[in-house]
Amino acid sequence: MSKILALYINEIIKISKKISILIMALIMLAGVVGLGGLMKLQESMQAQFHTDTASADWMLEEMRYQQERLESELDHANRQLDAFEGSEQDIGYLNMIEQIASLEDELALYERAIENEIMLFRGDDFLSRSLYGINNAKSRLRGLESVPQNERDARWLEHYTFYEELQEGYDQVILSRSFEAFIQFETQAAETNPDLADEERQRELDRLLLWQQLDPSGGLDHEINIYQINNLVSEVDHLKRSLEDYIDYTGQMGPPVPLTPDRYEALENQLAVLMYQIEHDLVSFNSGGGSVSDMAIESMISFGSFMVVLMILILAGGAVSQEIATGSIKSLIISPAKRWKIFTAKAMSLITVSLLALLALYTVGMLTHGILFGFSSGNPYIYAVSGRAGSIGFHLFQLAALMVRWIDILIFLTFALMLSVMTRNTAAAVGISMAAFFGNSIVQPFLMFLPRAEWVKFLPFDHIGLV
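Request: output the structure for the sequence above.
Response:
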């Protein structure tokens, strides 16, 4: 054992003296720090861009332009109507009347938006929804008013009353500019809507409560991306509906299809993760469209891991073949040490170097991320098993993920070391092992297009790597 230890220490010393390896290690660490700096710069630029575009000036100008356009179209439509020579019962005349009414509604929408400084182009906030709700109610009321008197029954009166109250309620919301009043009115409207079934009514109520929980401003906070909130609310709704009906409405499997047991469990876990994130305030809705902090750590770790793999493949590919080429292997062979001990020492030194490189990557990556984005900025990893969610701390998860990557590195390390012994050619050993490493990432996407037959399971590219 002492002989293996001595050979192991000797191998570590030889590796530490290789200038090319030291240069690659420095490039890796510098690249990690540089990527972190670039991502921080990107975050600053996104914040500046959002600050610049948050100004309402260009939105008001665009709405005034749309107002002028609608006034022009309405004037043209009225002239066409005045010049119409047919009967008032003609389809063409009725269509022109409906077109003029629609233009008048849309023009009224923009006029009221400008008057109340409601930015229709900012996002799907509750004030914009109220304005569009008024227009929809007007359109429905016109349709109901076109029904002949002798066909207006209790069902007709129920719908007419509902849309009248809808129009009045949205008017009050705009006057109050209160999101809480909007939620209360939408809740009341959902409960009295004659077109909603009980299940649809409950889903609508759940959507409203979730929206209010995620964004108390109702879309008026410029720092929050309202589109991301709408997408999350819709995703939660689709998942709940899928689990209730045992039909996949998420769209990930194409048209709605019955759920298999495996797919049901996957959607159940997906919903559990989302609800855990919502309950623990772990969902990011920043205006940049995503967490730059999360993207930064992923980019830094990915680049660093890539450099570690290259460094280890070069070391392992030349561990034996390079010594054979230079003749330095002879001094080891003629020594009292057996060959398996020499090989064991080399393998142990390579494993040690790969582990130390990953630990150095982890340390530099976490420090860089913490300094640039804050040491409390990282989000924990959320997982779910059998519909129950849990979390792993940010720093612990990143370390665990690196250790999983280390298993991948060990696989390619072993492959390169084997080639170094078999071929006794450094170029061949390094080249073939790198081709296998890069080929895996290139071939993997193409395997997705193959039919999921049994023989596909035996292709090696589908099983290389754990991450």
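Confidence is low (pLDDT under 50) at residues 49-54.
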